[in-house]
Predict the structure.
Amino acid sequence: MTVAFWCVLIAIFLPYLGTAVAKGTGRYGLRDNHDPRDFLDGLEGVARRANAAQLNSFEVTPAFAAAVLVAHVAGNAQLVTINVLAVLFITSRLLYIICYLADWAVLRSLVWFVGMGLIASFFFVSV
């Protein structure tokens, strides 16, 4: 298995960092797990931002996974290049979550664009 495939697995579980922060730092913490979505909708501050980071991470993961698969299937890119792009993407997602939690909106948006550029890069190196 390649490093890039391991990065896909990491990307699948990465949103749960946001989940843990959102549920663990909420005003009262998640005491009743019967309706966690309602609980998450009522959060404020860093817990609310953690939930937003979680949701964005869930949204971008399929695109990343597809890009890694396309790069492998196309077979035109060097494996080292694919692996480096994958590690850079995971790094960008970690930075994105940190920026979201810290409420650094402009930097967060820049990091998001970098991550999307990295996803596109998988396609460009596969040509």
